[in-house]
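Q: Protein A?
A:
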Amino acid sequence: MRAASRARPTDKTAQTKLVNRINPADRAEPTDRTKPDARTKPDARSARAVRRDALSGAGPCPEDMAPGALPGATGKFALLAEVVLTGALVTVGSVLVVTAPAALAAGAGHLRRHLRAEDNSFRRFWADFRSALPGGLAVGLGLVAVSAATVFTLLLAAQDPAAGPAMRLVGGVVLLALATGTILAATDWAAAGGWGLALRRLRPRLEADPRAVAHTAGAVAAAGLMTWMLYLLAVPALGLVLFAALAVTERPHAEQREGHPARP
């Protein structure tokens, strides 16, 4: 009796065998329509990786995808580090004060190459600095002379309580215009045209895109305020000003309004 009861299948086992015998399709593998494709996720990840590399400039761009205008701007932390590094390089190049225009031109070229995912090594920076130095010294001497005269006039105006506030306002506008013009000329400097062409193009750029000039002037004023609060902030402020000037001048519609092609 005990052996017979041990060999007898339970009710649950019997029901399972009966169902499998009646409907064997329940044990079949899912068809291709219901079975998930294991290759879908890896292919999607690969496509995203290719797109990310193409936009950042780290990899080739597919034929069916247009390359980004500024691929170096996709990495936010890398861009911030490059802006601060550019400010440090410009600070080192501006130690003699009169070399500031050449350092700004070299820093603008360095940051532009990073934004376009090109070679922006230190060697290229110092090559641009040496190329911009001859004409940049003349520009720097002129800026120092005009700035010194403006500051001296402000010191004299401080002795007159009536004309002091108005003269301080005029002097501040003059210094802001000098700094803004220097930044714009530095971002437009090229070894082929030199400082002469960059300075001559200031007025057409102002007439063609006054909003870009106003944005650059606002960035210069903010950098001056940062430096006034803490002198050490002048280092990143220089990089931020150059980045702001490049951001407003590298726009495609700004290049079209000015009537000249994008910078090489």
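Q: Protein B?
A:
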Amino acid sequence: MQDRSPLRSPRFKPDCPVLSLVPKLLPRPRRRPGSTFRGESEKIKNFQLQFDIRYNPRLGKMLNIFSKNTDAPDEHEPGPFGPYRLIELINTGGMADLWQATNPEGQTVAVRKLLPKLRRDGTAKKRFVKGCEVLAEVHEHDYIVHYVEHGKIKGIPFMAMEYVEGANLKEWMANPSDELSQYIGNILIDMGEALEHVHDCGYMHLDFKPENVLVSSNWNVRLVDFDLALNRPEKPTKLAKNPGTPAYMSPEQLQRLPVDHRADIFAYGVSAYEIFTGQKPFAGATPAEILKKQLNRSEFTPPREINLGIPVAVEKTILKSLETDPNKRHGLLSVMLHELRTALYV
């Protein structure tokens, strides 16, 4: 892991915060007036339930969902997991639990475990495994989290990878500091180089956002979460499915039009805008609202109107990456990164 040098442009200090089926209840046996045989009623009720379960296995299986199995291990309890020892649950995301763990040699690693609710979901499992396979191919880069292994332990899909002590960029932006302002230029370039490497390896990330950029306590960057990554097509291609985070998705994604790697360039532009201004360029509660603002720029606010500390050349690069028409964006990340390095003196 290499050291970071401070940003050399003293004017580059943002003034704004950088930053179903449910089993039917069995009818209660009727009691004759004046009867007090509650024990007999319970026997009859239990007999009916056992009879129905015996001759209706589906009902028995469904009822078992609601019964607590005291012998089952708690998914959120630390302890051994195959050759690893889970130490602390770091985060629970939409796809997996992330644990701080140690390997057999006692080294600290991070372990992702597919969520229990998704382990019978074929699409989710394929997506999880695809993310692992993509990371295994692209991880040999300074700014991408390092891959260790993936597979199954006791039937649970998992992946072991480098443990990064720090927080994601979104969390750093929520608590801005002078030091963050000092290194923000380096972070922008580093995360761009990581994304460029993903493209060079033949993939699109398709979920690029500050939450998926880890920043360590000494300002090293790691790009993470490749669960939505797909092969980079030679020409724009319509995707069979359209997962992602709407606020960072390009207009062509939200309109279900053919997509290529320039959708990632748009997501990078949204992230850069947010880092410098503390707000998203196209805010909306729904994908439809976001798309409407992307297509109609009458209410769009250029970043320098929010933060005058942004160099003019940097604003120009951000605006180009946010073009509605992908043909008007940078064709390659290398071109955009060259512009940013020149503007930021990094």
